[in-house]
Amino acid sequence: MAAVAGNRVLGRISALLGAAGATRATYTALRKRPPGGAVRWERKNYAGRTVHLHAGLATAAGTALAAATAPGLPARTRTAAALAVLAAGGCGAYDDVFGADDPRRGFRAHLSALKDGEVTTGAVKLFGIGAAGLAAGALLKERPADKVLAGVVIAGSAHLVNLLDVRPGRAVGAVLALGAPGLLRRGPAGPLSAAPIGAAAAVLGDDLGERTMIGDAGAHALGAALGLAIVTGNDRRGLAAHAAGLIAAAAAGDRVSRAAAAI
Predict the structure, then answer these.
(1) Which of 2, 75, 207, 249 is deepest in the core (most CB within 10 A)?
(2) For residue 110, what pLDDT is reported?
(3) 143: left (phi > 0), else alpha (psi -120 to 50), else beta?
């Protein structure tokens, strides 16, 4: 029994440190050689300071690598983790780069544009992350209703963290706080919680110091990883409760973001 508990702890530590190390190494490499040039990844933050988006790509890569290689996880769980996190990060990065000048925000704005025949980067993100969440949920659960609920939780968690990314440290801090209880859970939920925590911790100082921001790429990837941990640690009742809460948060998106900014 003691050996099993020790292995669980080591698995979580391995995932956490692996995510932190991979994130930091990727972050350093991106700062030295940003793909497409430095200007592509520069943005003005809420205070008008120039920051870069390297933390987003780095946390997405670090989280995906750690979640997909964490010890003791079934093959289907590894596949689901890599799929959900990389898809969320990739769709977020697409919006970061090509949707930077689009003032439209929220589901309604992007769905209205789609109705008029315009495919916005936000719509690509919405449907891409949603589809990846459902695919990952299908790998993690057996019954159809559970698969759908799992997809909602994964995509909804990705969206929630993005809603909180309104000031330095808000989204990253939320990932640390929301992921911490999962470290105590048995099974895959433990290492799947450790991966986004390690990645978030690796860039927290630079985020708070307003040298970088995680952007849509990092926020969605970290959120999707938290969703994966929730899915693997809950039955149908728990999934339904989390899905309901996440849908409510999405419906009140503007208020959630304003509350996060006010903290």
Answers:
(1) 207
(2) 63
(3) beta
